[in-house]
Fold:
Amino acid sequence: MNKYITAYYNDEEDLLKGIKQLKSKGIDVADVMTPFPVHGLDKALGFRRSRLTRVAFIGGAIGGLTGFLFQAWVFTKAYPLNFGGKPFFAVPSFIPVTFEMTVLFAAFSMVIAFFIRSNIGPGAKTIIHDERSTDDRFLLVVDIQEDEEVKQVEKALAEAGALGIQFKA
Amino acid sequence: MENQSFTLPKKLINVAIGMVIIGLISLAYGYFGGLGGERIAANLLMNNVYFLGIALIGLFFVAVHAIAESGWQVSVQRIGEAMSAFIPVAGVLMALLFILGGMHALYEWTHADHMDAILLKKAAYLNIPFFSIRFAVYFAGWIVLAHLIRKTSAKLDLNGEIFYFNRLRMLSALFIVFYAVTSVTSSWDWLMSIDAHWFSTLYGWYIFSGMLVSGVAVLIIILFILKRMGLMTHVNDEHVHDLGKYLFGFSIFWAYLWFSQYMLIWYANIPEETVYFYTRINQFGTIFYLNLVLNLIVPLLLLMTRNSKRMFLVLLPVAIVVFIGHWIDLYQIVMPGAVGEGAGIGLLEIGLTIGYAGLFLLVVFRSLSKHPLVPKNHPLYKESLEYHTNY
Amino acid sequence: MYVSPIREPLIKGNKDYSQVTKDILAPMAGTPSKYWYMGMTIAGAAALFGAWASFMTVFYGIGTWGTNKTIGWAWDITNFVWWVGIGHAGTFISAILLLFRQKWRTSINRSAEAMTLIAIACAGFFPLIHMGRLLLGFFIFPYPNTRALWVNFNSPLLWDVFAISTYFAVSLVFWYVGLIPDIGTVRDKAKDKIRKAIYGFLSFGWTGSAKHWSRHETISLILAGLAAPLVLSVHTIVSFDFATSVIPGWHTTIFPPYFVSGAIFSGFAMVLTLLIVTRKALHLEDYITVNHVESMNKIIILTGSIVGIAYLTEFFMAWYSGVEYETYAFFNRAFGPYAWAYWIMMTCNVITPQLFWFKKIRTNLVATFIISIFVNIGMWFERFVIVVTSLHRDYLPSSWTMYKPTIVEVGLYVGTLGLFFTLFLLFIRVFPVIAIAEIKSVLKSSGEHQKHADHE
Structure:
């Protein structure tokens, strides 16, 4: 099991400053737990833009095509029926269902991909380092590879103004 | 940051005047080349309505953001205000068109000699005196309110007094109420009554949504020209992104209204309604479908990603396409009824539009050069500078 | 992010993050107040009335309703459209206002969305019950069956099935994704084991990891982008139910945007009705302030005026079209036997919201509450007018007739109201009514504390 150090800040601006300081010392922050999305944290941690939007696009395209082609198949091949003299291949009539299917598939594929990517889901077990990290604390996690690092990281954290520094193994 | 006032560059004036001359030449060509009074009148009406609509959207843009107290748009507010300077010019040109025989050429209901039963029923609304009164009321209201809004905004710029800020909001609310009614009724008067027998309740909103898209497109184009001139340095990617979102979103909104109108008429299949689309699809088929490609498919596909909305490299071409697209939309609205089979896109159509665009540019840039481009005393200006969205 | 000092704070009182958590979770703790029980009793009784009416409908059939051979659609569809309309505010608030970066939405979006979901459930009840055989409700979906039959994709009623089920599903997901971080907070604040286990399960293992937040923000935005046209599409498709027909008064092209506007109008009225009471009862005045109410009132003016313009446009076009059936239908609406309903609609929907032009009225909670009730009533009558007046005198004068609801129909309507309030009362006990994380993210820029600091 890996070892790590946790520490927290009481304010998101201190957190951002702290992360910057740690980075300049070459210490990588493994994870940050915050009670709300902190503006600028993505940049500080060097996250890339999420690619979930592409999942939504692909999902939506599949949904829309499925919806449209299915309707076209039903009306022209499977069971052509004359409704009020309308053409069998009645494109304007297909638009609403096509649209709804697009939205449905896009939304669901993206959200499901989000859960899978983030490893969360109904009843998922995750480690909660500090119960106040969903309340008012901004928690930092630094991974430790070798035992010698512990002191050094703890010192750096203290210098960066972090509180409640704890070593966990 | 400096005020960014600028004097009109000679080059721009020359180009714009050149465009106007092209317009005049093609008008003369139309007149002497025997293209017929109907086609000339229809072209004049169409361009007039188009650029008037864009000018009104400039003002609408300012007004809506003023009452919504939005911060970001303060940085481009001047462009919207300047666009509205074209309203009086359009008013004069349109009055001239109607006085000099345009009405008779365009509107069947003015022909007192062959009115049918349906047109007689509508005579209480569609008659020349009432039409003229409405015309006068629209332009009086628009011109006065546009003038007041521009003046108040300029005063707000001097010292940022909250009094003028509130006054601007009040005037904006007034304009929006007035515009909400007049944009609908004016579209009935000038456009829907070309096909005098036909009617559609959605029509006014459909026209408005098209103007909204082209207004935003023109705003983007003007912003680009100003940026090329080395001005508007305070406008950053975030603002461009927001304008891009507008262009994207409103294009979809326009398509929604297009579909609503088309689908309901197609579905119910009542001859007195379907006649409108029947002539358009059968006689103007290419234009009819091109309209959808340019105004829905292009912005939908090209502006979907975040990056494309932030880069002029993509946004500008899309804005130009959409600008042309809504011109084409208006073309298929006006021409089938006003000209019929003699219609076509030739030198007259293209030249006259270039002429109108030149005149529009001239008026708008002259107005832009009168006030500092940076409304730096606006109470929300700092918000506009410092904001950035994650999305 | 910089916020101009001329803006009013969105959150009153000098709150810090933990105070926000405490305030918003407070209504979930302890035993409910006696008002809650009172509300629950009344709502439950209404729901029981509805259960009786449903039983009568299913057991004896649709004959227990007042509909007849001319007026095949009346009470049932009126209620359906009314509820769907109410279900528009929540997703409008959380999707369209998110796209327009209206920060005030953070205080109201959670409860408005919950209201949306409940309202859609109430709406869905009506098409189901009118089938008479609830068990066969699944017939409306296209599924492979032994008769090799498919549903009619030309029918706007079928589009409704797709629109409303998609809308419900996507709204539910949108709402729940937004709720997950807050459930995490509830889990971490829970004292006893059972609560912790339940909310732990429901929180999907949320930790607030930066990477998760980053993705969460992205998908919230895209969901908003998807939900925005979805909101428009739902009532558009509901309006197609009427507008694709050739009934005078129904077939008019303005219906789609006009229905959408009316839906948002009625939805906001219902949000106001609920929240003005809720904020008081749950002591959330600091979060749902008079400013929020004022902002919502402005949306009421906007959408109410759009609806007003649409009424006038319809009326004008009925005359302008020169179609005598159309002209008569509108004349009959305004001056026929159902004129009273028409004028109730006009007064409630067009005139009362115009009172909000006065700042005094739109910042007055009592006045707002009363007007919001008026709008709710007015919007119900709008649907009643559209449905009944257009049908009761159609092309064939020999079958002209009148419609009167029976006690069973009234019961169904009252029953859904009961269901609505029951579920809403449960919601405020089970989940946080305000989006905690979202409030915290705007606390610094829009909280009162920060405002004072700026001025000094």
